[in-house]
Amino acid sequence: MSFDRSDFDALNKEREKQRLEQLAPQLRLMQQAAILAELLPGVPAWDVFLSYIQGAVETTRAQAATLEAVLKAADLLDPQRLLEAKVSLLRCHERIAAWEAVIQLPKDLINQGDQAESLVSRMEKGATK
């Protein structure tokens, strides 16, 4: 028995169909999350929450700038203080990244919901064939 291009294409289509069927529940949850995320910007509590997060980001950026200045100082010779400053600076950058991810969460959920919708529609088109 030989395995030619048409067999290969058919096998790939079947695998893609199975993969999409397995992902269907997750994709539908992503679609629902996107719908909820679209409603968030109009909720006053969300806006207050974002203002707190933005304040934390700005405060942490100021701390990071201070730590960067400490690290550039010529009189910082103590290896322990140098290490502590480096670790603190890394933690500041990590906190900023986490808070920015929270701020972007609704937008990311909406984008993923759109992608999920596209995959679900592909899956449903494939099921009707």
Please outline what is shown here.
Helices cover 88% and strands 0% of the residues.
Walk me through what this model shows.
The structure is a single chain. The protein has 129 residues and is mostly helical. The protein has one domain (5-128). The chain is 88% helix and 0% strand. It is built from three helices and no strands. The radius of gyration is 24 Å and the shape is elongated. The model has no long low-confidence stretch (mean pLDDT 84).
How many beta-strand segments? Answer: 0
Overall mean pLDDT stands at 84
Low-confidence stretches: none
Helix content: over 70%
Structural class: mainly alpha
Number of domains: 1
End-to-end C-alpha gap: 28 Å
How many helices in DSSP terms?
3
Gyration radius over CA: 24 Å
How would you describe this structure in keywords?
single chain; 129 residues; mainly alpha; 3 helices; 88% helix; elongated
SSE blueprint and pairings:
Elements: H1 5-39, H2 44-72, H3 79-128
